[in-house]
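SAMPLE LOG
Freezer: B-3
Tube label: C17
Construct: single chain, 137 aa
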Amino acid sequence: MSRISDNCSVQDLVHMLGKKWTIPIIEELSSGESMHFNGIASAIEGITPGMLAKELHELNVEGILNKKSISVNGTAYAAYSLTSKGILLAQLIDKAKELCAVCCPSGASCRYAYGRQRCMLYKEPAAAMVSNSGQYK
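STRUCTURE (predicted):
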């Protein structure tokens, strides 16, 4: 059974997005072009073929990506692309990056920009980062 269903909780969504390889895979497929397994594997540094296969399978089961079998010159390949749910998640990831740009203006990852200190998002309440007009400071 899919953990991320039409009535999923935010907690389920955060759990799924918090997995190490979910966001890099979604980002690679977010261009709208379908990609072959080897193309995804070469684009994501550090992922093993076994882990990529496992993650692609799970994202397919969750309805986040499509897996389509194609044949080129008699050789069968799998092509992966985002579903409408996957596209929404890619948009959510883009919005989260916008928030990170506000919270970590150095442009570096919070974890690396501040060493052992936490991101500004954890230091200031969210209300303190939003102006009276509703825009992020």
